[in-house]
Design brief:
Elements (H helix, E strand, L loop, with lengths): L2 H4 L23 H12 L6 E5 L6 H14 L25 H7 L6 E4 L3 E2 L6 E2 L5 H14 L6 E6 L6 H12 L5 E7 L7 H5 L2 E4 L5 H10 L7 H8 L3 H9 L2 H12 L7 H9 L7 H22 L12 H8 L3 H23 L4 H19 L2
Parallel strand pairs: 1-6, 1-7, 2-5, 5-6
Antiparallel strand pairs: 3-4
Helix pairs in contact: 5-6, 8-9, 9-10, 11-13, 12-16, 13-14, 13-15, 13-16, 15-16
Length: about 375
């Protein structure tokens, strides 16, 4: 892929990871691939596919694999000189195939990618927060121009959750009256938020979270530094995208710092708590602040689960189970920690909305957890 293309901001790229179009293999999602191939080989290829699952488990990679396969594989009936080829057993397409090369260069005329656009009109320029109807309307031009070439046309929507209402309605019209030989693939992290009419016109492919072994393979393929795949799988919820973010932002060390801090609850080390709060302040620290808030929320979830009799397996850090079991020894504690998680979630959202000082927000959250530990800690 050219350097120029690498420099273009893309809404569907996870920072620190290859773009899904450049990912060679899809790891840990053989069930979803087999379901699509069965539909293809039995002549039940639906025109709309809804690819769902948590963030970062390979939904976009699967969409690009399917698109590459559809555009590089002759439709049934194109038997050629030597008769019909055997049914394909895999979505793999050789990387030197002309379609694969054009897709990698974003120059394939049979493919349209609907995603949030880069807005040069803003100062500073930034990514739009939603997929607008102006972007969705480009599909009409795509189908009118590509119709002259014949063959399949493929659309990837990444992600459908980000469409504004007008864009969603424009896409719905295409799903209701799809052009000939058109396949639309909608990637969705939260399909329940989509229009019911959109969901009803698509066949769903549900992707699973990844266990530690598959996580390690996927991270190596993405070029990430894999020091503790078991801990990454635990904290990321089996999401490769989230694991890459944890790796890039030293999330494992951040979570271990949290555990060490709360190991002293309900009498935590105040200077250490203040140092933690100050570590996510200043210019360029927004991503670390977001991650620390997510890890605090995850810590409370793991506390509640431990109190309810489901300690974390596997542990995300040494002595985690012992620390959580002391702070959440029973079901009453589990209920208390779950209630605190809901309360703190509201406080954090309010604090972010009114631009509360990040250090004050973190310190307030940590002290609230320490106060609650006094009620439940064994």
């Amino acid at each position: 892929m050219s350097t120029d293309l690498d420099d273009i901001p893309e809404a569907d790229r996870v920072e620190g990871a290859p773009h899904p179009r450049d990912t060679a293999r899809l790891i840990g999602q053989s069930r979803a691939e087999a379901a699509f191939l069965e539909a293809y080989n039995t002549g039940r290829l639906h025109h709309g596919w809804l690819i769902t699952g948590p963030r970062g488990v390979g939904k976009a990679t699967l969409a690009w694999r399917i698109a590459r396969f559809l555009l590089a594989t002759p439709p049934a009936g194109d038997d050629g000189l030597f008769g019909a080829p055997p049914p394909p057993e895999t979505l793999d397409i050789a990387p030197d195939h002309p379609v694969a090369r054009r897709m990698q260069a974003m120059a394939e005329p049979g493919l349209f990618v609907l995603r949030r656009a880069w807005d040069d009109s803003k100062k500073p320029a930034r990514m739009k927060t939603v997929i607008t109807v102006d972007e969705a309307r480009k599909l009409k031009t795509f189908f009118s121009l590509s119709a002259t070439d014949g063959g399949r046309r493929v659309v990837i929507v990444d992600s459908a959750d980000e469409m504004n209402p007008n864009a969603a309605n424009a896409l719905l019209k295409l799903l209701e009256e799809p052009p000939a030989d058109a396949i639309l693939m909608l990637i969705s992290h939260q399909p329940s938020r989509l229009l019911p009419t959109i969901r009803s016109r698509c066949r769903e492919l549900r992707l699973d979270t990844l266990p530690a072994d598959d996580m390690e393979q996927a991270l190596i393929q993405a070029g990430a530094d894999v020091t503790d795949p078991t801990a990454l799988a635990a904290l990321s919820g089996g999401s490769v995208g989230e694991a890459i973010r944890l790796t890039n932002l030293d999330g494992l060390d951040m979570y271990r710092t949290l555990l060490a801090l709360f190991a002293g609850a309900p009498r935590i080390d105040r200077p250490r708590a203040l140092a933690l709060a100050n570590s996510v302040t200043g210019k360029g620290a927004e991503a670390k602040l977001d991650l620390l808030l997510r890890l605090l929320d995850l810590f409370l979830i793991r506390l509640a689960r431990t109190g309810a009799g489901a300690p974390p397996i596997p542990e995300a850090a040494a002595d985690e189970t012992a620390i959580l079991s002391r702070l959440a020894p029973n079901v009453t504690a589990a209920q208390g920690w779950a209630a605190l998680g809901a309360e703190l979630g509201g406080r954090i959202r309010h604090g972010r909305a009114v631009n509360l000082d990040p250090a004050a927000l973190i310190l307030d959250t940590v002290l609230k957890i320490d106060q609650t530990a006094a009620k439940f800690a064994a």
